[in-house]
Amino acid sequence: MPIEYLEKIPGKEWLLVRTMPRSEKLAEAFFRANGIACYLPKYNKTYINSFTAKSGKSYSYKRQPVLSVMFPGYIFAALDLEDISNTRRERSVAQVCVRATGSEDELLADLRKVQEFEFLALTNRVEVKAEIQTGSSVTITRGPLTGWTGVVEKRLDQNFLFIRIESIGYSLGVEIPAVDCETVV
Questions:
Q1: Which secondary structure element, helix H or strand E, spans residue 165, and what is its range?
Q2: Regarding the domain delimited by 13-123, which CATH topology (the fold level of the hierarchy) does it fall under?
Q3: Which of the four, 64, 70, 72, 146, has the lowest number of CB atoms within 10 Å?
């Protein structure tokens, strides 16, 4: 399958659009219905279910891969001023992020790399930050828990970690994307 790269559109600018929680696909449907070029990166996420029988024996099995959003809460769209105004009124959209630094060319170059990863991930097993394994100490680098440190309890799949964080005498278990973590040396 050939890669169809995102291109500049005369009179419009590619921007990052923040969506309401779990509304990326609704935002994509809004853009497509209004004839606005958009890009929602996706990948195949594999879930592993496990349970323990009454006999004490543990079982686990993989479910069919599900096409999931690569960057939860975000979609990219080529917008002009009228499109920005209409987009801000859409219920599935939280914010249109007008770029303060960097150019549209830089954003498109980054999005093309994401597209290549997306096409690669559809046909191959891609593991993000393979060096982070069970028992590794990590620091969370993005999101609401930025700066917190914890221990990887298990790798949920190629892209997500389950981290145990100790805070004020309590132990919290959190599912975090591997890309949002750095190993503590």
A1: strand 160-167
A2: Alpha-Beta Plaits (3.30.70)
A3: 64
What's the pLDDT band for 127 if we cut at 50, 70, 90? low
- Is 103 a residue whose pLDDT tops 70? yes
Q: Are 158 and 127 in contact (CB under 8 A)?
A: yes
Mean of the pLDDT values across residues 146-175?
Answer: 85
Q: Is 3.20.20.70 the CATH classification of the domain at 137-183? A: no
In angstroms, the CA 148 to CA 76 distance is 29
What values do phi and psi take at 30, rounded to 5? Answer: -60, -50
Domain ranges of the chain: 13-123, 137-183
Asked if 161 and 142 touch (Cβ cutoff 8 Å), the reply is no
Helix, strand, coil % in the chain, rounded to nearest 5: 20, 35, 40
Tokens of 146: 């930025």
CA angle 114/184/171 to nearest 5° reads 100
Instruction: Report which of residues 93 and 114 the model is more confident about.
Output: 93
Q: Which amino acid appears at position 75 of this protein?
A: I
